[in-house]
Amino acid sequence: MSARPHTLWLTVAIGLIAAPAAASGQETLALDVDASTVVIPHTATMVAEAVTLERPGHYLEAAELYEAAASILGNGDPDVLKYLTRAGLLCYYAGELERARQLFEEVGIRASDLGDIPVARVAYERALNIAIEQGDMPRAATLYLKSLPDEERDELLERRRRRQ
């Protein structure tokens, strides 16, 4: 049985893409999908390396690995929120407050989009605390509102409108 031309072309093209990764020693995971080979980076290796770097002087390196793993997985994977949260904590420990706040805000947005309100609330609260630490009170006020459940936020905003 001969291979169809487009299947053969796809296999060769993917082989050309995967060859540099294999030559550099980068670990990859191959999946067999419809008689063609798809190669994706192996995020477990990145996360394992990040865990070994979670010590003073290496926090930012570990954070970058967690962020890279999250970007590979994409929005639908539940580990994305966990990896971005870990990256945010490590940036905070390293003194990179702005980057930590941005990561926690990103976790808040993504968790809200996924309907994971408890994770979103904790992420926004962390971002809020960092904004206060930075002295950015307008940002802190915005983050405080985002951290509230919808009913509480609506009630608070309504009370404010009545006072004006």
What topology emerges from the helices and strands here?
Elements: H1 5-23, E1 28-33, E2 36-41, H2 43-52, H3 59-73, H4 79-93, H5 97-114, H6 117-134, H7 137-147, H8 150-163
Antiparallel strand pairs: 1-2
- Helical percent range? over 70%
Distance between the termini: 79 Å
How many domains in all? Answer: 1
Overall body shape: flat
Q: Taking Cα atoms only, what radius of gyration do you get, to the nearest Å?
A: 22 Å
CATH architecture: Alpha Horseshoe
CATH class: Mainly Alpha
H and E order: HEEHHHHHHH
Query: What is the strand content?
Result: 5-15%
Could you give the order of strands across the largest sheet? 1-2
Mean pLDDT: 79
Give a brief description.
The protein has 164 residues and is mainly alpha-helical. It contains eight helices and two strands; from the N terminus they run αββααααααα. A two-stranded antiparallel ribbon has the order 1-2.
